[in-house]
């Protein structure tokens, strides 16, 4: 909740006298009240403040309630990574790489607007080709799909990002025979 703006400060800011500032506030308050806007102006001890109309409080509550962030499941991340690196790719090719069907995972990724249909393959049955969306790029902070990490360097990039892995790697390389 903000603080009300006192008339004296407003008069100084606009370089007008106190009475004119007060009258302008009253005029604006009346205008908001008459038009039934969602925002109202209230007077508190010769100060004025914008407030939300009480009738809209339930909407404001819903807007301001934090939305629970949903994370992608491990299977969704696997399918998304396969699509990102192999696009355009068919569902059959994804199933073959994962060794398990991924119909529901693909549906979920489409609903989340992370992947989309990119046409049809020329193979028998003309299966649908899938690829990533601009939403995918935005969500993961890539400007283009070319910004994806080089797949050969992923293991070293992941190890470099996680200092615990480095410590673990050092621990398992100890030679007890010396």
How are the secondary structure elements laid out?
Layout: E1 5-6, H1 7-14, H2 18-35, E2 39-43, E3 47-52, H3 57-64, H4 74-86, E4 89-90, H5 91-98, H6 103-111, E5 115-120, E6 128-132, H7 134-140, H8 154-161, H9 163-172
Antiparallel strand pairs: 1-3, 2-3, 4-6, 5-6
Explain what you see:
The radius of gyration is 30 Å and the shape is elongated. Helix content is 50%, strand content 15%. Helix 1 (7-14) crosses helix 2 and helix 4 (74-86) crosses helix 6 (103-111). The protein is an alpha+beta fold and 178 residues long.
Task: Give the structure's gist in a few sentences.
This protein is an alpha+beta fold and 178 residues long. It has nine helices and six strands; from the N terminus they run βααββααβααββααα. The longest helix is centred in the N-terminal third of the chain and has 18 residues, at 18-35.
Mean pLDDT: 84
Strand order of the largest sheet: 1-3-2
Order of helices and strands: EHHEEHHEHHEEHHH
Largest sheet: 3 strands, antiparallel
Radius of gyration from CA coordinates: 30 Å
Shape: elongated
* Poorly predicted parts: 165-178
Query: Count the strands?
Result: 6
Distance between the termini: 68 Å
The proportion of residues in beta strands is: 5-15%
Structure class: alpha+beta
Enumerate how many helices there are, as a single number. Answer: 9
Q: Helicity range of the residues? A: 40-55%
Task: Name some characteristics of this structure.
three-stranded antiparallel beta sheet; elongated; 178 residues; 9 helices; alpha+beta
